[in-house]
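#onboarding

Welcome to the new folks! Below is a worked example of what a typical request in this channel looks like: someone posts a single protein sequence, and someone else replies with the predicted structure as tokens. Don't worry about understanding the tokens yet, we'll cover that in week two.

Example request:
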Amino acid sequence: MQLAVYVLGREVAALEQAGDFKSVLSYRADVAAEDFVSLTMPVRTESYVWDDQLPPVLQMNLPEGYLLQVLQEQFGPQIGASPMALLSVIGRNMVGRLQVAAKGADLTQPAKPFEVAALLKGDNSEAAFAALVREHATSGVSGVVPKFLDAQARDGSPLAPHQKASLVTRRHIIKGASAQLPFVALNEHLCMQVAGRVMPTAKTEVSDDGQALVVDRFDVDEQGQACWGMEDFCSLLGLRPAAKYDTTWERIARAVRDHVPGTQRLETYRRLATTLLLTYALRNADCHAKNLALRYTSRADVHLSPAYDMLTTGVYAGFQHNPPAIEFMGKKTWLPGKNLQKFMAATFGIQPKEQQQMVQAISDAVAEVGLLVRHAMAQHPGFEDIGKRMLLAWADGVRGLRDQRVYAMPDWTGRTAFEDFSPPPKLMTSQEKIGRSPLLGKR
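Example response:
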């Protein structure tokens, strides 16, 4: 199979399989230097050969989880279930400035989402598509938070009505909750409210019932047309998406040094430092290599993308004991001590005094958004216990940063939002023993 790769609608390269486990990308002879496919793959005459079925920058856009399984089952009998085959199906609707399609394809007519629904369900209707999205939104489409990338452009608010939110605009990503992760959309929205007070973030809106989240895409312009390239750190580090937890903050910092121009590097490191501190303050154990990305228009204009996918993970059973997703100085721990301060000074160039200012700004943001959490608890009775756990986790996170063993800052109270509520029920811990047969009798 051979596919064409496009940058902002211009055909720039050919992609083909070489055997079962290799892929080859070859640039066209007339491609401009700025039409590179990846920051790691500058335009050159020699082909790029990967010992994998797709280059990392294209693996980045493949669906994960349940949606991947559905696509493999439905399209496999017709075109095969290889990553290349799946890319031929979804390649015209990807995050960033890349598109992949058959050579000479009309990219001005992207596949409509309900046409994909027709392929999956045999029913070419918007109702079928809406049902498909709802099904995926309760089954874990990608990562911890189920999500669906909408491809159809319409006018109106992206949240009105909630049942049709997945069909409103190609300028948004729609996320839903699940039985395992109730109110995860509201959880993420509130975490993003904290982050938005201290750094650039993707804009989010949450539905009235707290179960659906609309995230503004920051790789497209006002009309929904792609204008920025975007690569997550799995792509930049040459990792498969499944290896998103298998990296370090040191490697991420080196990738920034390799790809971000010197004039923009310190600001990029500041944003990374703020992200790392937010990870501790919000107790976000899902800040991995796919949830950090660079955004660019050219090699001279590369920055850390706005923050996205922030979540307080420990409020859900099964996630409450997870450590931070990315290690530094060889450890993953919520009790980093002075190592956190030393690491950020040595690796990001952020001195302790500025780090303390960042911690204070985050503390103030958490205190402000804590009031929004209490409001959400009153508005959504089913969210009450989750909201309590979020407040407790945030208070623990902020106080941990301000502790004598980390930044030695004055005590933090967090205002009334963090007081006067009963403790939530304790989360259940799985007692399952790996390797024990269910046929054995209980002792």
